[in-house]
Structure prediction request, 1041 residues.
Amino acid sequence: MSVKGPSALRIADVAAAVGGSLVGDPETVVSGIAPLDRAGPGDVTFLASARYASMLASSNAGAVLVSPQLADTPGTCRSRIVVDKPHEAMLTLLPLLYTMPDRPFAGVHPSAVVASTAVIAPDACVEAFSVVGAGARIAAGAWIGPFSHVSDGVAVGPGSRLVSHVTLYEGTRIGARTTLHAGTRIGSDGFGYVSGKDGHRKVPHVGRCEIGDDVEMGANCTIDRGSLDATEIGDGCKFDNMVHVGHNCRVGRLCLFTAGTMVAGSTNIGDGVVLAGQVGVAGHVNIGSGAILTARAGVISDVPAGETWGGFPARPHKLAMRGYGALAKLPDFMKRVEQFMKDRRDS
Amino acid sequence: MSVKGPSALRIADVAAAVGGSLVGDPETVVSGIAPLDRAGPGDVTFLASARYASMLASSNAGAVLVSPQLADTPGTCRSRIVVDKPHEAMLTLLPLLYTMPDRPFAGVHPSAVVASTAVIAPDACVEAFSVVGAGARIAAGAWIGPFSHVSDGVAVGPGSRLVSHVTLYEGTRIGARTTLHAGTRIGSDGFGYVSGKDGHRKVPHVGRCEIGDDVEMGANCTIDRGSLDATEIGDGCKFDNMVHVGHNCRVGRLCLFTAGTMVAGSTNIGDGVVLAGQVGVAGHVNIGSGAILTARAGVISDVPAGETWGGFPARPHKLAMRGYGALAKLPDFMKRVEQFMKDRRDS
Amino acid sequence: MSVKGPSALRIADVAAAVGGSLVGDPETVVSGIAPLDRAGPGDVTFLASARYASMLASSNAGAVLVSPQLADTPGTCRSRIVVDKPHEAMLTLLPLLYTMPDRPFAGVHPSAVVASTAVIAPDACVEAFSVVGAGARIAAGAWIGPFSHVSDGVAVGPGSRLVSHVTLYEGTRIGARTTLHAGTRIGSDGFGYVSGKDGHRKVPHVGRCEIGDDVEMGANCTIDRGSLDATEIGDGCKFDNMVHVGHNCRVGRLCLFTAGTMVAGSTNIGDGVVLAGQVGVAGHVNIGSGAILTARAGVISDVPAGETWGGFPARPHKLAMRGYGALAKLPDFMKRVEQFMKDRRDS
Prediction:
C-alpha cells in the first residue's frame, strides 16, 4: 500500500534472490521497479509476455527480468535476469526494494475511544479517532486504522488491518491476516422487509458477518449481516472495490470478485469462483466451485461448477458470445431474408 | 442491526404472542430463531414455502412456525405453531427473543464537536467523533452514530438514526424514524457542468435534499442535492446498499431500490416503484406509480404506472424476455435460414 | 455545495450582470433562482429549451432568463432578460444571489491530529477530526474537511477541497482547485494477485495516485494507486458519484465519467472522453480522445478517437442501436420466417 522510499541492490544480488540466471553486467545497481516504458537506468523492469516484447528495445531500464522464452528479445539493458516466472520474481523483489507499510506504533492512540470491556492485544495498533466497542477483541498484530468503527462484540483476528474509515457492525468476526480497505462496511442490515398495507416492515437482522483469514477487500465494499445467522466470506477471498454481498450469502474459499460485482441475498458460492467486473448475481442461487462469470454477466439461475458463463441472463460463455455475434449480424440478415421472402412471394 | 444476546421463551408463550395454534409439547423452550438447516433444539425455525418443505424432516429445530398449508409436513420438531403468515409472526417474535439496538446513552459524547447554535433534544444521542454544524437540529430520540457529519442547517427528525460515518451536507432534512447506514452521503453536489472552450464550468448547487419519514437506506448510498430546489425521497422508501439518486429527482412514497441501482438527475418516480438490482434510470424520465423494473433494466424512456419492464433499453418485461429467448435461438435459426435460402437458390 | 441564504437584487442589475437586454419592469426584486414550476414572485427562472416553453405561461416567477429564440414565449413574468445562453447567465447569477461555501476558518482545528513533519499553509483550513500524516503538504487555500485522512507524504494543491470522510492513501498528489466529495478514496491498492497452489498472493502496490488540477469527484468514488508507478487523472476531469478507476490507468484531461462508471486496470483514456452512466471498461484497452461511450456501454476493445460507441460488447453506437432495434423485432420475424419456410416446404 505505502512506500517509504526504495533501497538499492546489486543486480547480481537480485538474481540470487529470485533464483534467476544473470546475463550481462553483475554490477548494475537498481533501486526501483518500473514498467518497460517508464523505467530508467536505476530501475529493473520485467518482460513476461510476447505482447510487450517490442517495448524492450526502446526501454531505458538498467535491468530486466525476462522469461526463458523471451530471453533473447532485443534490447539494450545492461543486465538481464532469466527467470521462469517474472511476475512471481517481482513478488520476491518488491519487499527488497521497497519498505512495506506497517503499524506506526503499538498501542492505542490517545484520541481513540475504547470501551473498558474491549480486549486489545499489547502489540496491536489502534490509530487516531477509532471507536472500539464493548466486548470487542483486537488480536495480536492487528492494525486498526484511523476512523475505524469496531462495534460491540466484534473480533478482529491476528495481523488483520482496517485501513481507514472502516465500519464493522456489531458481532462481526474478522479472521487472521485480512485487510479491509477504506470505507468498507461489514455487517450492515440486509435488505429485508415484509410489505403490506402499512408499508414495508423491517425484518430485524439478528445475524452477523464472518470474514475468513487472508481475505482482502477493496475500498467502499458492503457486506450485509445475516438475517438470522451469518453471512460468510471464506478464507483467501479477494474482492476489488465497491463489491456488494447481500444477507445470508455463503461465499467459499479463494473467490475473486472484481469491482462493482453485486451478489443478492441467500446465494451460495463455492470455492475459487471468479466474478468479473460489474457482475450481478440474483438471490437464492447456487454457483458451483471453480465457476467463472465473465464481465457484466447477470446470473439468475444456478451455475454448474467449473463452467464459464456470461451475458444476461447468464448462460455458458460460448453461447453468450455466439449470441452477441449473431446479434451483430442480425440487421443485415433480416434485410436479406425479408428481400428473399419478398422475391419468392412476388415470383 | 445488533444483538445483545437472546432471551428464552416457552413455546406456548410464543404461540400466544404470534396468535398461532400450538401442536406438540407446550414446554419446549427456545432462545433463538434459525433457518431450517442451522437450527438446534433451542431454536425455533419457520417453514413458509413448499420449496423448503423437505428440509423440515432433517431439521434439528426445537419448534417450527408453519403455515396452515404446510402444517402436516413431516418433521421431528417437538412443537409446531401453525400460523397464517410465518414471516409476519417472525417480526413479532424477533423483538421477544433478541434485544434490539438502541441509543447507548442520552446526550452528547464529550469528543463530539457541536456548534453553539445547534439544537439537540435532551434525549437524543450524539456519539463519539461527531460533528454537528451551526443551526443544525437533532430531534427527540434521534441517534447520531460515531463519525457523523451533520453539516450546518441540517434537520434530523425524531427517532432517526445515522449509523456510522454518514455525511449530511448543508441544509439536508431527514424525517422521522429514518435510518441511514454506514457511509451514506446525502446532499453531495449533483453532476452539473456547463462545458465550453475553457473546460467544464461547475453549476453551483444551491438546492438541498429532503428525505421523508420511515426511510431506510443501506450502506454507501449517495443522494445528490438539487441544483436549485430539493431532491426528494418520499416516506417509507427503502434503499439497499450503493444506491445512487441524482440531483433534482423526486422519488415518491414506499419505493424499493435494490443494491447498485442508479437514477440520473431530474427523473420523477411515483409511489411504490420497485427498482431491482443494478437498474439504471436515465435523467429526465418519468416512472409511474407501482411500476416494477426487473434486475439490470436500463430505463431510457418513460415507464407507465403499474407496468413491469426490463432489459436494455427497458421495455415491457414480457417483450424483453421474449427478446432474450429469441436471441438464444438466433445462431441456430440463422444457420437454418441461410441453408434454406441457399437450397432454394440452388434449386 | 452549501447555501447561506440568498441576497436580493433588482432585475435591472441582474440584466447588467449577465449582459442581457431587459424587457418589462426594471424594479422587480429577486432573491432566488428556481425552476419554472417552483418559482415564485421573488425568484428568477430560466427558459433555454423549446421543450419547456409551455411551462412559462403557468410559472409564477417574478422574472425569467430567456434565449432570443424563445423571447416571445407567452407568460406573465413581470420582467424578462433576453440573453444568448441562459445557462451560462445562471453561472454568473448564482454567486450574486447565493453565498458560496468557503473555509470556515484558517488554521487547524484543535481536535485534528497533525504530524510534526506535515507542512500546512497558514491560510489553509483543517477541520475537526482530520489526520494529516508525516511529510504531508497542504497548500494555500486548501480546505480539509472533517474526518479527512491525509496519509504520509500526500500533497494537496492550492485551493483544493476534501469535503468530508475522504481518504488519501500514502503518496497521493492532488492538484490545484480540485474537489473530492464525501467518502471518496484515492490510492487504495489495486486488484492484483498472483494466483497459485497456495492461493492468491498479493502484488504489493508501490505506485501512487496523481490527480490533476480543477478535478471534481463525486461521493464514494475509488481510484486505485498504481502497482509500480502512478494512476493518473488529468486536469479538468469531472467524475460523478461511485466512479471506480483501477490501478495504472491514465485518464487524460477534461473527461466526464457519470455515476457508476468503472474502469479496470492499465487502461488508457484520452482527453475529453465521456463515459455515461454505469459504463464498464475492461483493462488494458485504449479509448481515444473525444470518444463517447453511451450509458451502460461495456468496452472490451479499443475505441477510436472521436467515435460514439455503445452496447455490450461496445461497438459504434449506431450499430448497437440497430442491433437493439432488430432484437425488438426478432420474435415476430422468427415466427414469420418459420411459417414461410414451412409453407414452402409443404408446397
